[in-house]
Amino acid sequence: MSNESYSVQLKRETLKRRSRFVLVFAILAIAFCVIVILNINTGNVHISVPKILRIIFLREGDSTELNIIWKIRLPRIIMSAVLGGALSLSGFLLQTFFENPIAGPFMLGISSGAKMVVALVMIYFMQIFASVSSYALIAAAFVGALMSIGFVLLFSRRIRNMATLLVAGIMIGYICSAITDFVVTFAADSDIVNLHNWSKGSFSGMNWNNVQVACIVIGITFVLTFLMAKPISAWQMGESYARSMGLNIKAFCAGLIILASLLAATVTAFAGPISFVGIAVPFLIKRSLNSSQPLVVIPATFLGGAVFCMVSDLIARVAFAPTELNISTVTSIFGAPVVIFMMLRRKRGN
Amino acid sequence: MSEAYLQLKHLSVGYQKHAVISGIDLDIKKGEVIALIGPNGAGKSTILKTLSRALPIIEGNIVLDGKNLTDYQNRELSMKMAVILTDRIKVELMTCRDIVATGRYPYTGRLGILSEEDNARVDEAIAAVHAEEIALKDFNAISDGQRQRILLARAVCQDPEIILLDEPTSFLDVKHKLELLSILTNMARKKNITVITSLHEIDLAEKVADRIVTVKGQEVFGYGEPSEVFSEEGIRRLYDIDNGFFDPLFGNIELQKPEGDTPQVFVLAGGSSGIPVFRDLQRKNIPFATGILYPNENDYQVARLFATEVITEKAYCTITAEALERAKQVMAACPYIIDAGAQTGEMNAAVEELRKLAQESGKLTTAEALSPIRTKK
């Protein structure tokens, strides 16, 4: 008899869970569409929706408006969506790996490490070639990201403690920022025209070439991450159990670190360091899904990160127009309270 | 004798190339329940970790089902071997059923989506450990005992031939300990699963295991059936107990007997009536004598550990005049007498005589009324 009630209960719970997943994805999708339209529609030059649709789908209309939409707003929106998604996903991977809910690319100094190497490469290349390819920047950022995470791993392996991990990350972040500032201070003005804006974090000044490169790199990384959903679910049970399930621990860890670093590096290469997105979004997504199952959390986190960053970018552009805010200013205002809330919940033993 | 399922051949286990235990030679048959016992830090976990490949073999060889353990593919091994570890599982937003379902990991496809059959196996395993009521609750919201049951279900739906468990009963109360172990052993017998578990509780090990491996210091100390391993002397040596007893019959650890050779109290015992009195006197460190007991009575098993003298009669025989005489003598020499309330019948009618004598002597008292004797040490 109790068996029957269990199967009934199970059916109900399974249905509940599925509808919750569908609901969350539906809300995210709707939010995504709304924010895209809002984003294209908003700016110093007002363009009406019918005009926008004609410009996008028929490529006809006033040439200034066409340029604003095609050359400025669209690449920017796509970039904020793709990079926002990548950053959140990177955060989710790092949190899973370190079993620490406030691990993230910014907290662990990965963004700062990437920023440092990108700054060095930019200045160096500018002096010799006068330009840097997007791929070179991503490669530079990736090297910086791996360096930072290497140090963090070195520390955290020795001292297995959640707090130590974060302190190590934050310290590495400071050191990298200090070196970046140092280099920037003594660089010729012409070399750092773009550097200044970028090093504070911004989605402005994106072009179609950037979009193409970012979409290729992040697209591939996303697919690979999604294919790792199963081993990630094993890892969530802890290293020992994961091993007993047949997971190749070394290969898995290396893969996860590389994917997380590559995602964070790509974001940093194009938009500079952006704070709190990597922590706040995965947390909010997991709570709303009421699940930590990687198979659903991975796409939802990506979508959620895209929405979060597009909203943040819109606010950065509009709030004090014509002055633009740094993207981190906005993401911090929304992201930091989420983290504080998260820690208070944990304190209560929830 | 049938072929061994798991062979440990001159195995050394340890950390970082440093052997903790060496020269282990064991043959374990399929379907056997093996308990590893030994003092804390003796290396029980090290053996289990080496068997589950969490630690590399330092020296020697492990052969599982006719194939070297090191030659197994990860997935292949995970279909044969499941583990229950002491590691605390830190998961979030997962129901108990989700945890159990992770046991199906080796069988699911690329994305780890559960098939109809996987789901059926999960629910079957949940039913096997009687966990339907908690299955849909959050894993973090249940008790330690329930958690162990869920982990057992998880191990079972991994469909293994062998389950390794590291101290599965720590943190559990007596009821849950027994419950867990009985589910485990029933399952092992039904599905012919080999079980190797480390256990803290020797009494449980004795009740549950087909064979016992005792581990101490640098070596495997003993290996055999419980009756062989659990001699009083063996346990004492294993745990370096010099201030107590191990009672091999009941698997209990007893404390030291009261000091002194001159009994202060004579206990009129029989059946199981004397045990509480004996324990009371032991706690109060009062030496006592008792009688007249049959060796097949419970009282006798405890009395022989604690009493300075136990007056006995052969089992199922009427008490002889000789035994009665000795009892009278000893009782007369004791300053106090306690009547534990032994039942009497035809065979031990002599006890009634002793009882009458005791009442007449005016020395009758109770264990509560006596004050403890301080140790001289």
Salient structural properties:
heterodimer, A: 350 residues, mainly alpha, ABC transporter involved in vitamin B12 uptake, BtuC, globular, B: alpha/beta, Rossmann fold, 6-stranded mixed β-sheet, 5-stranded parallel β-sheet, 34% helix
What does this structure look like?
- The complex is a heterodimer of chains A (350) and B (377).
- Chain A has helices at residues 2-41, 49-57, 63-98, 110-128, 134-158, 162-186, 193-200, 208-227, 229-235, 239-244, 249-271, 277-289, 294-318, 327-347.
- With 350 residues, chain A is an all-alpha fold.
- Chain A has a single domain (2-347), classed as ABC transporter involved in vitamin B12 uptake, BtuC, CATH 1.10.3470.
- Chain B folds into two domains: 6-241, 3-Layer(aba) Sandwich (Rossmann fold); 265-365, Rossmann fold.
- Helices cover 34% and strands 23% of the residues of chain B.
- Chain B has helices at residues 44-51, 74-78, 96-101, 116-128, 144-157, 174-191, 202-208, 226-229, 232-239, 275-283, 298-306, 321-333, 349-361, and strands at 6-15, 18-28, 33-37, 59-64, 67-68, 81-84, 162-165, 194-198, 211-216, 219-224, 244-247, 252-255, 265-268, 288-293, 309-312, 336-339, 364-365.
- In chain B, the strands form four sheets. In chain B, strands 6-7-8-3-9-10 form a six-stranded mixed beta sheet, with helices on both faces. A five-stranded parallel beta sheet of chain B has the order 15-14-13-16-17, sandwiched between helices. In chain B, strands 2-1-4-5 form a four-stranded antiparallel beta sheet, with helices on one face.
- Chain B is elongated and about 85 Å long.
- The model of chain B has no long low-confidence stretch (mean pLDDT 86).
- The interface between A and B is large, with 34 and 41 residues.
